[in-house]
Q: What sequence folds into this?
């Protein structure tokens, strides 16, 4: 009888909280399983030749999703393939993945392409201590390892790129997951130059817009300068008339992808 009274008292005191969670949790997981409908804009267009995958993990929230594109005529018995992991921004779309899905691009650049989706409310990583959001980068890396295990990935040619929030993720991955990537392309993002010493010494091509009012271009320049002074193989491209959104110009440049696929851990 005493336990029953305690239970009822607990329910009365916390009924609003219980109600909120009973509504929020189904909505949250429905969002993970169904959103975004496509990694590209407009969302209502087909995302083929990508396939959507659900990924279960021991990390909270225990389930995530990603989009995967295999090369045309994929043949794991005969070939291993260069692989690109692409980290989206807050809007959860990946323009670069759409570029690589074009028939002419697939013919020249037979990449395995992975577009992990950060769970709602997550950031890939936290470049500032005051940014109190959970990190999705460990989930993205688990997805990469899973693809590496189950598909014919050339382990000497694993690349990473991302824009804005995803650019932070690129810098974070190079700082925390060593020996994985052969080259990196961060765009529309900044990273403290003092933290550059923690990054893997791999080829990088950095893109920023001079008019970007979200990412201080002075910090981006300082980072590129610091990396070059450390003797690293770094390109820095700044678009003088562009603001936030230079990933479009970067990803549309075939020379970028030719440069990327030429990079290999074997040659470093």
A:
């Amino acid at each position: 009888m005493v336990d029953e009274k305690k239970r009822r008292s607990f329910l009365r005191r916390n009924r609003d909280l219980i109600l909120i969670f009973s509504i929020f949790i189904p909505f949250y997981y429905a969002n993970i399983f169904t959103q975004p409908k496509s990694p590209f804009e407009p969302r209502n267009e087909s995302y083929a030749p990508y396939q959507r995958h659900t990924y279960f993990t021991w990390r909270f929230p225990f389930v995530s999703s990603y989009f995967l594109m295999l090369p045309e005529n994929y043949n794991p018995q005969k070939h291993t393939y260069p692989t690109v992991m692409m980290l989206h921004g807050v809007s959860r779309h990946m323009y670069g993945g759409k570029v690589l899905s074009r028939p002419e691009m697939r013919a020249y650049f037979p990449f395995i392409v992975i577009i992990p989706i950060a769970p709602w409310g997550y950031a890939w990583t936290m470049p500032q201590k005051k940014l109190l959001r959970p990190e999705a980068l460990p989930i993205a890396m688990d997805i990469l390892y899973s693809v590496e295990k189950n598909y014919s990935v050339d382990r000497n040619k694993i690349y990473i790129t991302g824009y804005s929030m995803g650019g932070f993720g690129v810098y974070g991955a190079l700082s925390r997951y060593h020996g994985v990537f052969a080259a990196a392309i961060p765009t529309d993002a900044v990273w403290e130059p003092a933290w550059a010493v923690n990054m893997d010494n791999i080829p990088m091509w950095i893109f920023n817009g001079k008019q970007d009012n979200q990412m201080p271009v002075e910090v981006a320049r300082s980072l590129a300068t610091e990396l070059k002074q450390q003797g690293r193989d770094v390109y820095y491209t700044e678009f003088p008339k562009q603001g936030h959104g230079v990933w479009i110009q970067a990803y549309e440049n075939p020379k970028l992808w030719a440069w990327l696929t030429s990079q290999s851990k074997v040659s470093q």
User: Anything to note?
Assistant: The chain has nine helices and eight strands.
